[in-house]
């Protein structure tokens, strides 16, 4: 490796660390590691030897796109080989492809380095491809930092604020207040009885008291009462007559009119 | 004037002061960020039921205009500044899309792909039936990336999808920029091409959504870029060929139309390179383009890949497109023979703005054509752009054909607007560079200011046309509020809860009759098989032997009945995915049509939330 490029080792190391972080149950590490494996590391390994000839924008385009191609094309290959696409398979696929590309470049390293030409035309103006000279204007001065950092901080603050406003508005604006009532048969009718499951789901704005009245053939009647907080539900399993329509009516408070009603046709 | 407004590299005067690396990009983007904040406020107003139109339009303009003006007016724009501006604009515009529905996918097509992604995440299997969008099962690229991100990061599928769409959107803009640069455009022209493309009808929303097209699209400029850089006899031949092939393979298995178009564009470019290349241009300065065959080779490889995929795993694509093409053909023949009057319903103001924008673009195309012909230019790329520009106008005419015309034309602009943006950018930069904007000139002249103002006006016209007639439609331009069978606005919390209940109660593939929103949700959240063409069952005021027979014939087991069908009017004029009266339903259904379901013999009402009711259908 002496005299060869060092970037493959760095990227390979990063891929191994990211793979380890994904497999460890630490969410703080898992998110950036997973994102790196899908969006960055395979692409970085793929463009490695071309890097000197690529502009920054070319790298910005190539790295995520070539990375994304790995789960897309590689996933189909793995599945064709009979492998189910689970998380460990995604880890193995992205890591192995990254390592393989790094290994390939290490093997071809000296040749690739020789063939690397003039750096890309990144620091150019509209009118030419002349590479930038690191003159006084190119130095990272305090004034220049201020011209970049201050707007960047302001931009991030504005976008963060906008995001919070949008998220809160969507969460509060999409809330609806309602109650759902459902009835489902359980198993099949046995002799003269059948079982049904009646569920009340509360999504009202405040805790609400409910009464469910269930009626059926041959004068069957049953009722259940419950008080539910928003976001909660309650299920009862009842044994009802096997024949004839069974109706469940839901009442709130002292109301005499059913708030919701569901029914099962005769068995 | 040249199409790309580039000067030869050697023409730079040595005394020219260098532009700072990022130039005015940071400040410009900060001003744009204020626009994002304004749009966020307008969305919040929309959710609260208030009218946020003023904040919305001010925000939209503020996000876009500073970047456009900077690129049109600047004397010098370095690659770093131009790249920062377009990438910044792409990020900000993606945020506009995200803020519309930041907590969950609401657009039906996004839910279709969300369903495929969650299915892959849970089962690890490809090609499983996706009842929400059957064809998506054979184009699993987006589901694979989404599942990989969700699986590797542990994030929910929705967040993973938002990240995938955002990264692809950003990568697309970067790829378009580098493609323009590789074809000879300067940074200013390349950046302006990206800004122009951002005025496309579907750029802001549809092309940034979690859809298979969003993932495939950036690979289209990438494969063109690779074809430009690939030289058979160069030492670098392998990497660029490999990048081109990988891009083609990814498109092939991710999105049908993008794959087909990539092959077509490569074939066109390759043919032009083979025909026009290798001969000296008629006029000095027009350039000599060597004959080359790399692009044709890539086109051939793409044809093999796309053909093999279409004839192999994705055979059903024929069934998917067949009925749509027949429907379109019928509408076109009806229009030509005078039997139908074409599509209707476009807002006159929006139509006028769009027409003005189209006219401006047509002028641009003519200017570019004239310049190319006068220069006796034999650059294959220029001719390909002109052909693409002409295609844009041909496809734009589709909007007048049938009820689906506007949607098809809108979706096609995603592709046909690419060459026109590149052409228009060259013309605009060429026009604004004259009259005192050169590097060696003094302060900007009045003429230059006028030209910049005119260029900005054209861009604003295009932007306004896109926002007025693009996505989201006018009735749900701001989020919030329920609209019966709307797109995003048709999906409310109670309907989602009902669909989730269906998913818990019934096995996947159970057939359910439904309206537009019901079908979307039952398929996405419930994994049920939506039957969206039993409109007769819903619209008749009473049960008839015919409607019962229809349910039996279609093997429908469940019915999704939204009681608001009897009280609300759909803003789209359509109630069902396949609606014979699409666009014409301007009143609620009769009350009896909605209440009759309680009297269906032998049926159960299994679920009731006050609006959505689920009935079983006795299939004896």
Comma- or semicolon-separated keywords:
heterodimer; A: 267 residues; alpha+beta; Immunoglobulin-like; 2 domains; 3-stranded antiparallel β-sheet; 7 strands; B: 620 residues; mainly alpha; 5-stranded mixed β-sheet; 22 helices; disordered N terminus
Written description of the protein model:
The complex is a heterodimer of chains A (267) and B (620). With 267 residues, chain A is of the alpha+beta class. Chain A folds into 2 domains: 1-121; 178-264, Immunoglobulin-like, CATH 2.60.40.150. In chain A, 46% of the residues lie in helices and 23% in strands. Chain A is built from 7 helices and 7 strands. Chain A has helices at residues 7-23, 27-39, 41-47, 56-80, 87-107, 109-115, 142-173; strands at residues 178-190, 193-203, 208-215, 221-228, 233-241, 246-252, 260-264. Chain A has a 4-stranded antiparallel β-sheet with strand order 4-3-6-7, with no helix packed on it. The longest helix of chain A is centred in the middle third of the chain and has 32 residues, at 142-173. The relative contact order of chain A is 0.09. The longest helix of chain B has 29 residues, at 405-433. Chain B starts with 24 loop residues before the first helix and ends with a strand. Chain B contains 22 helices and 5 strands. Chain B is mainly α and 620 residues long. Chain B has a 5-stranded mixed β-sheet, with helices on one face. Chain B has helices at 25-47, 53-73, 79-100, 108-123, 141-153, 157-182, 187-197, 212-216, 219-229, 237-254, 256-276, 294-311, 317-337, 348-374, 380-396, 405-433, 446-469, 493-505, 516-524, 535-539, 545-553, 591-595, and strands spanning 511-513, 529-531, 558-562, 605-608, 612-616. Chains A and B meet through helix 2, helix 4, helix 5, helix 7 and strand 1 of A and helix 1, helix 3, helix 5, helix 6 and helix 7 of B. Strand 1 (178-190) of chain A pairs antiparallel with strand 4 (605-608) of chain B, so a sheet runs across the interface. Chain B: Its main location: membrane. Chain B: The chain crosses the membrane at residues 27-48, 54-73, 80-100, 159-179, 186-204, 260-281, 293-312, 349-369, 381-402, 408-429. Chain B: InterPro entries: LipidA_mod_glycosyltrf_83.
């Amino acid at each position: 490796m002496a005299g060869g490029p060092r970037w493959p080792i760095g990227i390979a190391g990063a891929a191994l660390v990211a793979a380890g972080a994904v497999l460890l149950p630490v969410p703080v590490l898992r998110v950036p590691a997973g994102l790196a494996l899908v969006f960055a590391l395979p692409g970085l390994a793929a463009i490695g030897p071309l890097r000197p000839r690529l502009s920054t924008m070319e790298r910005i385009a190539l790295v995520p796109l070539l990375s994304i191609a790995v789960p897309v094309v590689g996933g189909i290959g793995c599945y064709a080989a009979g492998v189910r696409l689970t998380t460990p398979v995604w880890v193995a696929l992205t890591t192995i492809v990254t390592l393989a590309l790094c290994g390939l470049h290490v093997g071809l390293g000296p040749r690739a380095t020789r063939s690397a030409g003039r750096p890309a035309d990144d620091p150019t103006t509209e009118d030419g491809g002349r590479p930038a000279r690191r003159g006084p204007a190119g130095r990272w001065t305090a004034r220049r930092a201020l011209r970049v950092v201050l707007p960047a901080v302001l931009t991030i603050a504005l976008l963060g604020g906008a995001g919070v406003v949008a998220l809160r508005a969507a969460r509060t604006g999409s809330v609806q207040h309602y109650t759902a009532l459902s009835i489902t048969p359980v198993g099949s009718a046995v002799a003269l009885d059948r079982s049904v499951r009646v569920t009340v789901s509360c999504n009202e704005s405040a805790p609400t008291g409910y009464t469910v009245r269930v009626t059926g053939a041959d004068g069957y009647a049953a009722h259940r009462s419950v008080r539910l907080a928003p976001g909660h539900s309650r299920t009862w399993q009842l044994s009802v007559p096997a024949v004839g329509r069974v109706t469940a009516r839901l009442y709130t408070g002292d109301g005499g009119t059913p708030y919701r009603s569901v029914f099962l046709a005769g068995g | 004037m040249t199409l790309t407004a580039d000067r030869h590299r050697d023409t730079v005067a040595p005394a020219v002061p260098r532009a700072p690396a990022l130039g005015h990009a940071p400040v410009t983007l900060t001003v744009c960020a204020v626009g994002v904040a304004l749009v966020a406020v307008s969305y919040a107003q929309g959710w609260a039921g208030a009218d946020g139109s003023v904040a919305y339009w001010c925000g939209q303009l503020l996000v876009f205009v500073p970047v456009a003006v900077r690129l049109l007016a600047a004397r010098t724009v370095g690659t770093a500044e131009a790249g920062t501006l377009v990438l910044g604009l792409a990020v900000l515009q993606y945020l506009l899309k995200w803020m519309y529905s930041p907590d969950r996918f609401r657009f039906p097509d996004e839910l279709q792909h969300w369903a495929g992604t969650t299915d892959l995440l849970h089962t690890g299997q490809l090609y499983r039936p996706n009842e929400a969008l059957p064809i998506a099962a054979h184009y699993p690229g987006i589901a694979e990336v989404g599942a990989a991100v969700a699986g590797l990061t542990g994030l929910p599928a929705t967040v993973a999808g938002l990240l995938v769409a955002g990264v692809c959107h950003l990568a697309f803009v970067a790829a378009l920029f580098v493609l323009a640069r590789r074809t000879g455009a300067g940074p200013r022209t390349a950046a302006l091409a990206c800004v122009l493309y951002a005025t496309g009808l579907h750029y802001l929303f549809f092309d940034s959504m979690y859809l298979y097209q969003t993932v495939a699209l950036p690979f289209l400029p990438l494969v063109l870029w690779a074809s430009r850089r690939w030289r058979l006899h160069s030492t670098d031949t392998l990497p660029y060929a490999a990048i081109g092939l990988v891009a083609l393979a990814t498109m092939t298995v991710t999105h049908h139309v993008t794959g087909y178009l990539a092959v077509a564009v490569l074939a066109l470019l390759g043919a032009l390179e083979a025909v026009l290349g290798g001969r000296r241009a008629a006029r000095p300065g027009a350039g000599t383009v060597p004959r080359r065959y790399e692009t044709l080779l890539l086109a051939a490889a793409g044809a093999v890949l796309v053909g093999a995929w279409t004839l192999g795993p994705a055979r059903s694509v024929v069934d998917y497109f067949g009925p749509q093409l027949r429907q379109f053909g019928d509408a076109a023949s009806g229009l030509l023979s005078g039997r139908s009057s074409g599509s209707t319903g476009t807002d006159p103001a929006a139509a006028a703005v769009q027409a003005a924008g189209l006219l401006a673009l047509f002028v641009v195309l003519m200017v570019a054509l004239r310049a190319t012909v006068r220069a006796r230019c034999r650059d294959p790329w220029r001719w390909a752009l002109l052909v693409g520009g002409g295609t844009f106008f041909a496809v734009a005419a589709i909007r007048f054909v049938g009820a689906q015309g506007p949607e098809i034309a809108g979706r096609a602009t995603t592709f046909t607007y690419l060459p026109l943006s590149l052409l228009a950018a060259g013309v605009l930069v060429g026009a604004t560079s004259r009259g005192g904007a050169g590097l060696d000139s003094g302060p900007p002249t009045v003429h230059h200011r006028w030209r910049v103002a005119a260029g900005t006006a054209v861009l604003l016209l295009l932007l306004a046309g896109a926002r007025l007639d693009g996505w989201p439609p006018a009735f749900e331009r701001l989020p919030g509020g329920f609209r019966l069978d709307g797109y995003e606005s048709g999906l409310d919390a109670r309907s989602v809860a009902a669909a989730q209940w269906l998913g818990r109660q019934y096995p996947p593939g159970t057939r359910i009759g439904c309206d537009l929103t019901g079908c979307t949700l039952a398929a996405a959240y419930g994994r049920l098989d939506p039957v969206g063409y039993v409109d007769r069952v819903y619209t008749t005021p009473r049960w008839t032997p015919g409607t019962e027979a229809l349910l039996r014939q279609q093997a429908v087991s469940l019915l999704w009945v939204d009681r608001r069908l009897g009280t609300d009017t759909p803003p789209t004029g359509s109630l069902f995915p396949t609606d014979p009266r699409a666009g014409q339903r301007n009143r609620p259904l009769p009350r009896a049509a909605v209440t009759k379901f309680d009297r269906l013999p032998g049926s159960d009402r299994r679920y009731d939330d006050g609006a959505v009711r689920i009935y079983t259908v006795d299939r004896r």
